[in-house]
Amino acid sequence: MQSYQEMTKEELCKEKESLEAAYKEWQKRGLSLNMARGKPSEEQLDLTMPMMDVLNSSADLHSEDGTDCRNYGGMDGIPEAKRFMAGMMGVNPENVLVYGNASLNIMYDTVSRSMTHGVMGSTPWCKLDKVKFLCPVPGYDRHFKVTEFFGIEMINIPMTAEGPDMDLVEQYVSEDAAVKGIWCVPKYSNPQGISYSDEVVKRFAALKPAAEDFRIFWDNAYVVHHLYEDDQDEILDILSECEKAGNPDMVYEFCSTSKISFAGGGVAALAASKANLEFIKKQFTVQTIGYDKVNQLRHVRYFKDMDGVKKQMMKQAAIMRPKFEMVEKVLSEELGGLEIGSWINPKGGYFICFESLEGCAKSIVAKAKEAGVTLTGAGAPFPYGKDPKDSVIRIAPSFPTMEDLKMAAEIFVVCVKLASVEKLLETK
Ligand code: PMP
């Protein structure tokens, strides 16, 4: 295909006309499709239905240490759930607290507690003039919403193919004591699907923060979310790397079964050093008399161990993979060679990240909306919703049916082409 970049004004005008005609045809169909949020599809959720049968009215609801899961108590999680969540994160069960149904909630709580009560004896962040967080971009919009909500200043850190730009991270963290944290999605990152290299993880573990209460917020949301059986990313365990580097307290790791079992009905956990956990438990005991141990038990009895999780994730992948591959096929067939955008084909996670020509993302998202396709808002993967280049669009292929997704992808590429032609014509 001829590159749009090489087209003359006349050629671009002609292309625009035919694209406008195609776009109008789509509009006429009055579709309502959605590629906005990374929700599991119904078919994926159905995979977990047998879990609902493992506990019934005749089930013994005692955990392995004799705790009656129907009652209060067992604050930090039943032992088998700690072991299960630890297995998922590749850490020691002693370093795990099991919470409720959502890891975002733990992250919010962690920031909130640091604001009001500090971190292991340091000054509460709310009493400081300035608190800053480093935000690898593009990143997860809800992370940025949490820090924005608490008035924390966010600093963009560009992502590379191996993880965040560590030269910049090291510089900020070691020079500025107002930098108290960094948001990380280390495996199959949201939205690019990038996994951090060993060198990046080691550089994280070896950081020398100016602030004693600096913490890495390691959101391992996609830890087992591979799309392929024979081509999977693995990353180093940050907790043990931090310990080896003499920084045992510098990291909080989060994870959940939201996209393994039920989104909103899963189990979430935090992993951290014992010193961190001791401090956190002081809040824990005020906040709750115990999370949902019945759900913890249900999950462990159903999945049993990591082998059970791996099997489930391959069933999930069998549903997800064709969707990813279909979107990637439409992108490469329709946009390959045009030089108007790039994308990463991820090996796991929930998203495909598309990068358009500068200044086109908002226009593409608006055009798609008018043709019946809802995409994640342009700018969402950036702090304050501001994409400095207005070029990143997050595509979430999981929820729609294959049929809907195909149409949505076809509409998307028409919108990309149209917005790009308009942009290029501005300079001709
Ligand atoms: N972290 C990341 C990176 C996510 O993409 C998501 C959800 N899509 C979450 C956390 C939310 O997880 P939970 O349901 O456990 O709150």
Automatic annotation (TrEMBL):
Transmembrane residue ranges: none
Highest taxon above the source species: Bacteria
Q: Which UniProt keywords apply?
A: Aminotransferase, Transferase
Q: Does the keyword Cytoplasm apply?
A: no
Molecular functions per Gene Ontology: transaminase activity
What is one Pfam family matched by this protein?
Asp_aminotransf
Q: Which InterPro entries match?
A: AspAT_Ic (IPR024551), PyrdxlP-dep_Trfase (IPR015424), PyrdxlP-dep_Trfase_major (IPR015421), PyrdxlP-dep_Trfase_small (IPR015422)
Which Gene3D superfamilies does this entry report, sorted A to Z? Answer: Aspartate Aminotransferase, domain 1 (3.90.1150.10), Type I PLP-dependent aspartate aminotransferase-like (Major domain) (3.40.640.10)
Q: Does the keyword Transferase apply?
A: yes
Against SUPFAM superfamilies, the record matches this protein to: PLP-dependent transferases (SSF53383)
Q: What is this protein called?
A: Aminotransferase
Q: Which organism is it from?
A: Roseburia yibonii
Lineage start: Bacteria, Bacillati, Bacillota, Clostridia, Lachnospirales
